[in-house]
Structure formats: structure tokens, C-alpha cells
Design a protein that fits this description.
With 360 residues, the protein is α+β, with helices and mostly antiparallel strands. It has 13 helices and 9 strands.
């Protein structure tokens, strides 16, 4: 019996020594086991790598859009860091969508690509891809990601946002003064053509005049098509060179009568229009120098008289409903994405790289 107890004691002492020896060994192993990564990887999300090539591709594309590549090294790294952050967020959302079987299908991507290629010849489309520093594979990847995020937000966020009639009424009662127009306002669209060089004309056809003579010829051709009955919005989307309004059919939103009168010639012409009518061709002036830079044609969509709008007005109701829906959707989306980020394991190696190089 004594021998057995002595043996048990020896076993316990041996185990204690072994365990004590294993603890520092385990700590050493853990300390040296931080996952390594190659220079090609700038971050990981739940172990999935985000590649430096994707960061560089987006960096070049954003510089091209800004039409400027002159910046400081710090500015370059700041832009790259924000791009990595964006790629991390997108990867988090994509992984969530995959778990919910909401990843865009190849068929959905094909349909979107076909729609984007429709206005162009194969040669024109290839030129546009090259100008944007994208390959077709790059574009397909971006489309798949965009469609996936859209499907996820539609299911998880937008489908759950409700705006009741009571919500609309309450908003109207609290903001009634906003719907009391002190003067008439005019809902306008316009088609713009300029001779100023631009890499991004913003229209579906990629149509761009490169000189004043070309601009004058093009705007007259468009005016002739309008006079023959063609749709203003369709022509604006395909040919207008205003990147801010072309995609929406030239829609400029509302302008007060006093704003129109600030430009006597254009204002006087618009004030004479009936809804649906268009102006003649007018010179387009640069906002700063007031020099002529092109030509424009304006269309009056609708005119709203001065006075208090009522809650029974369908336009007022729709405006409030959309305003409330957009505000709630944005808030919930921000919270949802933040929640997903908190749940993810993220390692930002590019951020570590900047810190090690610059924080000396």
C-alpha cells in the first residue's frame, strides 16, 4: 500500500514538473505562431486573403477618376489605406452573403455585363475598359461583388424598413414650413455639350466633342432630334456631357424662380415654357471665369406655384416617404455593417506596414 502511495506521489511530482515545463513552452510556441503572410497579401478577413493587386487596381482607378496622379507619399499611402479598409468591409459583407446563399450568380453577372456593353461596339467597350484601367475579369468581379452586396442589403435591411402613413403625417406636421414655397419653383432637365477635353463624358455612348466646332455641330444635331419628337431623357443619357446629370436623363432637380432670373436670357426662356417644352440652344458658361465652354438645351418638367403644400398632395407624400425610408435604411445599414465587422477576425497587414515604416 505504502509502495503504491509512493508511486502515486512520484507520478504526481513528475506530472507537475512536466506541466510546469509545458506552460512556458506553450507560451513560446504561441508567441512564435502568429500567421505569416506574403507581400502579396494586404489583409485577411476570417483567414481569407485580400490581395495587393486588388488594392493597386482600385488605387489606379481612383487616380484616373481624379485625373491627377500628383500627390505626396503620405497621400498615396492614405488613399491605399482607405482602399484596403473598403476591401475589408466588402469582403466581410460578401462572406455574410455567402452564408445566406445570396451571392450573385454567373447568370446575373452575365446579364449586367450585357446591359453595360449594349450601347457600344466591341471595340468601343474594350477602349472604355482600357481607359478605366480594368480588364473584363476585373469588371465581372466588381459587378459580382456589387450585385451580391445589393442582394444582401435588400434582404437584410431595405425589406425590413417600413414607413407608415402616420410617420408621413408626423413628419409633415413637424416640417410644414418646408412645404410652404415662398416663390414658384421649376423642375428642369438639360443636355450639355462642351468642347473641353474630358476623359469621362458620363453618357452611355461615350460621346464627346473635342472642339467648339464639334460641340456646336453636335448640339444642333441633338436639337434637331428633339424637334423631331425624340425623348429628351433618352438623348441626355446617351449624349449629354454633364457627368452629374446624364445618367438621370439630364434631371437637374428644382430651381426657384429667382435663381432662374439670375441669368436673364436663359431664365426668360424657361419662364415662357410649358411643362414638356424645351428651349433653343444656349451658350454654357464656366461658373468661375464666365467664359463660354459649350452649349446647353433646357427642358421644363414641371412648375410648382408658390404657397403651402398639403399633406394630401401625392408628390408631398412620396417625397416624405422616400426621405424617411432613405434615412432609416442608411442608419440600419451602418449599424449592420458595423455589427458584421465586430464579428469578423480582421488582420490589416498594410496598416501594420505603414506603422512600422513611418512610426519611428
Amino acid at each position: 500500500m505504502a509502495a503504491s502511495l509512493a508511486h502515486a506521489g512520484n507520478v504526481r511530482r513528475t506530472c507537475s514538473r512536466t506541466a510546469a515545463g509545458l506552460v512556458p513552452l506553450a507560451l513560446l510556441v504561441l508567441a512564435g505562431c502568429k500567421p505569416t503572410h506574403t507581400a502579396d497579401v494586404v489583409a485577411t478577413v476570417n483567414g481569407h486573403a485580400i490581395m495587393r493587386t486588388d488594392m493597386d487596381r482600385m488605387y489606379k482607378a481612383q487616380l484616373a477618376e481624379a485625373q491627377s496622379q500628383q500627390t505626396t507619399p503620405e497621400g498615396e499611402d492614405s488613399l491605399r489605406l482607405s482602399i484596403v479598409h473598403e476591401l475589408i468591409d466588402e469582403e466581410i459583407v460578401e462572406q455574410r452573403a455567402a452564408k445566406m446563399n445570396l451571392t450573385a450568380t454567373p447568370e446575373e453577372v452575365d446579364a449586367k455585363v450585357a446591359a453595360m456593353k449594349a450601347p457600344y461596339t466591341e471595340e468601343q467597350f474594350a477602349e472604355r475598359l482600357k481607359a478605366s484601367n480594368h480588364t473584363l475579369d476585373d469588371m465581372r468581379r466588381d459587378i459580382r461583388r456589387s450585385l451580391t452586396i445589393e442582394k444582401l442589403t435588400n434582404k437584410e435591411i431595405k425589406s425590413k424598413i417600413t414607413v407608415t402613413d402616420a410617420d408621413v403625417t408626423n413628419y409633415f406636421n413637424l416640417h410644414k414650413a418646408e412645404f410652404d414655397l415662398i416663390e414658384p419653383q421649376y423642375h428642369l432637365s438639360r443636355i450639355v455639350v462642351t468642347g473641353v477635353p474630358s476623359a469621362q463624358p458620363g453618357n452611355l455612348q461615350g460621346s464627346k466633342a473635342t472642339s467648339d466646332a464639334e460641340a456646336k455641330k453636335k448640339i444642333q444635331a441633338l436639337k434637331n432630334r428633339l424637334d423631331s419628337g425624340e425623348d429628351f431623357g433618352t438623348i441626355a443619357m446617351n449624349f449629354s456631357e454633364d457627368p452629374n446629370t446624364a445618367s438621370s436623363g439630364g434631371d437637374m432637380g428644382f430651381a426657384f424662380e429667382s435663381q432662374l432670373k439670375a441669368d436673364p436670357s436663359i431664365g426668360a426662356a424657361i419662364l415662357k415654357l410649358k411643362p414638356g417644352e424645351v428651349t433653343d440652344i444656349f451658350p454654357l458658361l464656366d461658373g468661375g471665369s464666365k467664359k463660354q465652354v459649350g452649349y446647353a438645351i433646357y427642358k421644363l418638367i414641371e412648375r410648382e406655384p408658390a404657397g403651402q403644400r398639403d399633406i394630401s398632395d401625392p408628390v408631398v407624400q412620396q417625397h416624405i416617404r422616400q426621405l424617411l425610408r432613405d434615412g432609416r435604411s442608411q442608419l440600419v445599414q451602418n449599424a449592420y455593417f458595423e455589427m458584421l465587422r465586430d464579428q469578423a477576425k480582421v488582420e490589416n497587414f498594410f496598416a501594420e506596414e505603414i506603422f512600422k515604416n513611418d512610426a519611428k
